Amino acid sequence: MTATYATSLLRVAMVTTAALSLTACGAASRIADIGKAPELSSIQDPQARAGYQPVSLPMPTPLPTERNPNSLWRTGAKAFFKDQRAAKVGDILTINISIDDSAKVANESKRSRANSEKAGMPNLFGLEAGTLSRVLPAGASASSLVDLSSDTSNDGKGSVNRNEQIDLKVAALVTQSLPNGNLVIQGRQEVRVNFEVRDLQIHGVIRPEDITAQNTISYEKIAEARISYGGRGQISDVQQPRYGQQLYDIIMPF
To answer: What is the mean pLDDT of residues 228-245?
Structure first.
């Protein structure tokens, strides 16, 4: 057994052990759910979830508040009458997600290179006629000892054709109010049909001015938007490759 072959076997064993340890918990939970519908997540305070971090962004210098006695209008106010649009932590608003994107990219690159090197030793203190003739094979000439040539050619092509279309609505919760008045929102929606759960999540930062009178906002006005749309259940499991195939793709990607 060669050293290279032994190293390859050791690598395969290490990757296999790591993959099995990572998938053990997931496989056990799937086996436990056989014959049952997937469980829905419990409703929790977003700020109490593990890994939650408040959003911190560059803020403008706060302006001093000016008070105007006996005035119906307050300096800096954005509306004369109070409305029902989301404005503070705990308020709810509706997000309209309507994505219809497409992209096509095609690239091609070609490169070729030819090299040629020749070297000889016609004269070297007179040794070319005696010593070199005894060392070199019959018929060899001291004037053309080395002749090297190389030819390299590369041709690469790549193309991308992508098309996404999503049309959804989801209610989101205001989880934080930033110093400049912008709002951090977070929304999650789960729908279970038979043995399949559809999961929609959205996070981002919005301006109160972009919220319409119907207390809705479009997804393209959400800064730092993170939108996730997927599912889990029996159909999703069938669509995923088997653990052995996933492991093989990691070890042997080509």
So the answer is: 78
| Sheet arrangement for strand 196-206 | 216-218, 92-119, 146-177, 183-193, 196-206, 223-233
| β-pair type (92-119, 216-218) | parallel
DSSP tag of 115: E
Q: How far apart are the first and last CA of the chain?
A: 24
The DSSP symbol for 34 reads T
From CA 160, how far away is CA 137, in angstroms rounded?
A: 57
The predicted pLDDT at position 206 comes to: 96
Number of CB atoms found within 10 A of residue 172's CB:
25
Task: Decide if pLDDT at 78 tops 80.
Answer: no
The span from the CA of 142 to the CA of 119, in Å, is 9
Among 82, 78, 97, 83, CA closest to 172: 97
Give yes or no for a contact between 251 and 15, defined as CB atoms under 8 angstroms apart.
Answer: yes
Tokens of 24: 């053990």
